[in-house]
Amino acid sequence: MIVSPVHRPPLGEQLLAQVRALIVRGELEAGTHLVEGWMAERFGVSRGPVRDALRQLELEGLVETRRRGVYVRGLSEDDIVELYAVRSALEGRAVRDVIARRESVTWTPLDGAVARMRAAAADADPPAFAAADLDFHSAFYDMGGNRRLAATWALHRPLFAAMLAVTNTTDRDLTPIAQDHADLAEIVRTGELAPALAALDEHLDGSCGRMRTVLAERTRRAS
């Protein structure tokens, strides 16, 4: 039997994901000086991918360039609130587009994502749950048909993935969150715009609140 090779992202993408996760989890603390040579040695890559990763992380607001190099900014409560405000604006537009096109869209992507969330919750598998969660929300953009809106969300998705990895690990029972997604899908499917947008706002507010709670607990332990 021929076994297909496992696809792995390029080293630069792996490095970016690792460093992003370390910052979001607070394992690379605000103020940490990110020296290219040290990072290249620690992660087993050349300096080129390190520079590329640092540029992307600066675009995401997680690091900043100062006179003597690049330093971790971290993820503050204000950052979390701002990120979710941007996401609410983007996703609200996507949901509007889905409802406007509801007679011609297929709901399979939402249903499939909810099914995978339920399975991951039953298996206590936070990484699989987070992947299905993000696929659920990405489906709104794909179904809405606005390519530029979808591309904008794609820029933000990796950071939200890192944030979900934190909150989903903290939540012991993911089943209620899966049900929240199922409920949201059903409300959007009705085609009633105001209830759909209200449900989306409530859903994203809950996600934002969980991340703020994690950050507050981390800050309390550090003090």
Key phrases:
single chain, 9 helices, 223 residues, 4% strand, disordered N terminus, two-stranded antiparallel sheet, 73% helix, mainly alpha
Record the SSE blueprint.
Elements: H1 11-24, H2 36-43, H3 47-59, E1 63-66, E2 69-72, H4 77-100, H5 108-122, H6 126-144, H7 147-170, H8 175-190, H9 193-222
Antiparallel strand pairs: 1-2
Q: Which word captures the global form? A: globular
Major β-sheet annotation: 2 strands, antiparallel
Q: What's the mean pLDDT score?
A: 91
Helix content: over 70%
What's the tally of helices? 9
Question: How would you characterize the overall build of this protein?
Answer:
Helices cover 73% and strands 4% of the residues. The protein is mostly helical and 223 residues long. It has a two-stranded antiparallel ribbon with strand order 1-2. Helix 1 (11-24) packs across helix 7 (147-170) and helix 2 (36-43) packs across helix 3 (47-59). It is globular, with a radius of gyration of 19 Å.
